[in-house]
Structures are given as structure tokens and as C-alpha cells.
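The instructor's notes for this session suggest beginning with a concrete chain rather than abstract definitions. Hand out the sequence below and ask the class to guess, before any prediction is shown, which regions might be ordered.
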Amino acid sequence: MPTAPKRGSTVVTPLRVAVGLCLAAPYVAILWVGSYSAVDPRFIGIPFFYWYQMLWVLISTALTMLAYKLWRHDQRSREGVKGGAVK
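After discussion, reveal the predicted structure:
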């Protein structure tokens, strides 16, 4: 029978993996310059290189918000397992 992890130890859960992916995706997308180093297609006259990066500002915001919500959900569920009050 598995034992409960020690207090203060880190546990890899699917939610925590999802949080990590949400936070890592913008870095991978922006650091992989070869995928967007082009002029075409243009959007309202703006070259692809620029509007792609600006689009990732919005996507990064949404992914960060999602990561925060998932993290809070994970923390609340862990408090419930420990017997603490769920807020």
C-alpha cells in the first residue's frame, strides 16, 4: 500500500504537468525563431514576424491565467486531502 508523501515534498500530478506546459509553451514558441521568421502572410499590412509575436502576448496571458487556475485547484485539492478546510 503506497504511503502518503512527506510534508513539504513535491509531488508530480497531472495538473502540475499541465501548469508546466502552459508556462513553457510561450517560451518554446517565441524562442523557435525559424518557425516565424517570414514576412508573409501579412495581417492588415503588418509582417508575419511582428503579428505572430504580438499574438503570443495574448496567448501567453491566457495560458498564464489557466496555469494559475490549475495551480489553485491543485493546491485546494491537496489541502482537502490533508484534512484542511477548503476555501
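Then share the key points. The radius of gyration is 19 Å. The first helix runs from residue 14 to 31.
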